[in-house]
Predict the 3D structure of the following.
Amino acid sequence: MYNLRMPIRLLSSEVSSQIAAGEVVERPASVVKELVENALDAGAKNIFISIADAGKTLIEVADDGHGIPANELELAAARHATSKLVQSEDLFHIQTLGFRGEALASIGSVSQMTITARVESAKEGARIKVEGGISGKVEKVGAPLGATVRVENLFYNVPARLKFLKTDVTEKRAIDALVTRYALAYPQVRFKLTDGKQITLQTAGDGDRRAILAALYGVDVAKQMLEVMAQEDYGLSIAGFISPTSLTRSNRKELTFFINGRWVQEISLNSALLQAYHTLLMVGRYPLTVLFLDIPAEDVDVNVHPTKAEVRFKQQDKIFSFVQRSVRKALLAYTPVPTVSPQLWGTRSQTESAQREIGIDWSIAHDAELTIDNPPLSAEAAQTSSSSVTQQETLPRVGLPLLRLIGQIGATYLVAEGPDGLYLIDQHAAHERVLFEKLMAQRENKNIPAQALLTPEIVTLPPQSAKALVAQLELLQRFGFEVEEFGGNAFQVRAMPALFSGADPATALRALVEDFEEDETPLAAEVEAKIAARVCKRMAVKGGQTLTKEEQSALTRDLEACQAPRTCPHGRPTMIHLSVDSLEKQFGRKGSR
Ligand code: ADP
Ligand code: MG
């Protein structure tokens, strides 16, 4: 082992500044971030970014902000030198993006950096070169108002860092993603990003966020994104975009949060967001969101992370629930009933397969996987997919209108009429939704009525499942199941939630156990809801089951009363809507005369 003690020494300034630089400057995108933030802090209206070799050989950020006076240039490049913070109290109401006075010093210590700037009052500009942390002399040069920071050969003097960089494609993508997000956050500023060959991003600076969204995700996705906008007394506000439930990704990478104009990676906010989508998305799918949260500066501590990617809130719960409520509201208001798009019917240009889907034996909802509920996997897919069912892009509608039940067809679907057309309801999905909302409401009130079985039922499970069940008996009780161990791998079911009365206890128990085995989610509340959703799925009426007229109308009424009647708890649609409008078009009653 290495245990020869070396004497304690102060690190050379070169080494210590490289260590410090490592915290701020990890990759080319981190340089771009710091320089763009500086430009924004300087009040720039135009920010032009050029890179070469994914930023490895060149990053240049030019702005038209207030610039830096010649006599402060040397200081700007020095460590702990900032114009944004004077005393430590200022740390608790920070209004600027920067304040640590570290970025330029850090970047200068691991690259060849040139800062050129001019302030309004000066006729001439000035320039300083910093190489590996050593500043040269300040020279007078002609320069436009603002500042231009040119960073060449990043990490030329720390080859170890260079080795950690990913491929050019990946590093470039990180820069693109970063600049696009800042452009979204600051739609009044014109951004231009080029790699010397082509312009990757150019924004108009006219405040139109949706146009920038199109640059990030493609026009098709941008059109579908729902707008969130909410405000609360106390200076709390949120704005931005969230994807509808039909538009998802398989990972959380597209959850973007800005807090007070700063891009942050805040796990707690992500979970607030995901809770808002809860039960509206299929398991394992995540939304795309770009949200801008504004919080009074004194209520958020941004000084907990060197790159300021994490923050602390004074009133985390308040903010958390504000985010969740605002997103949920936007989502429920817009969750559209899938509408069969008129042009699919009868128009010659349609492909045969589309015809088949529509000529449908009413199986369109049943085979939701194929048509409606097929979330685009990527922006590219979203752009090219010509889904046979389009989202209603009309006004926000909460809940369902009153429906007039017409009857059941194929022992699987209910047909109903609303003020705005025909509704085809998948009885299974609808019942799933109804049971789920009732169960969760009872759970919320801590009162899930149980119903004792006339004769307790003995259910024997495979050893593995039995073990899982034993571990969860308490949870079961909370849901209104009364289950006791009965020796071996057998259990005695004495009572079930009244909601499921009449269902087979063995089926319920087996469904529950499967869930325990599959579940990995650590959040208890999330696990509970997931289990509830799956049990409800098992307990719900199936397709192919004839319902009495009373049952049909009870189900319709119950569905109308649901908070999110348009999807089952797993995110599949419960209904298809044929609007009066599309029917009229299809029958040639409209437009052709
Ligand atoms: P910080 O942003 O935390 O203050 P930096 O090292 O990023 O620290 O910048 C140091 C100082 O240099 C800033 O406080 C600011 O006064 C000045 N500065 C940096 N970039 C610009 C710019 N683009 N325009 C005007 N001033 C700038
Ligand atoms: Mg800065």
Remarks:
- The radius of gyration is 30 Å.
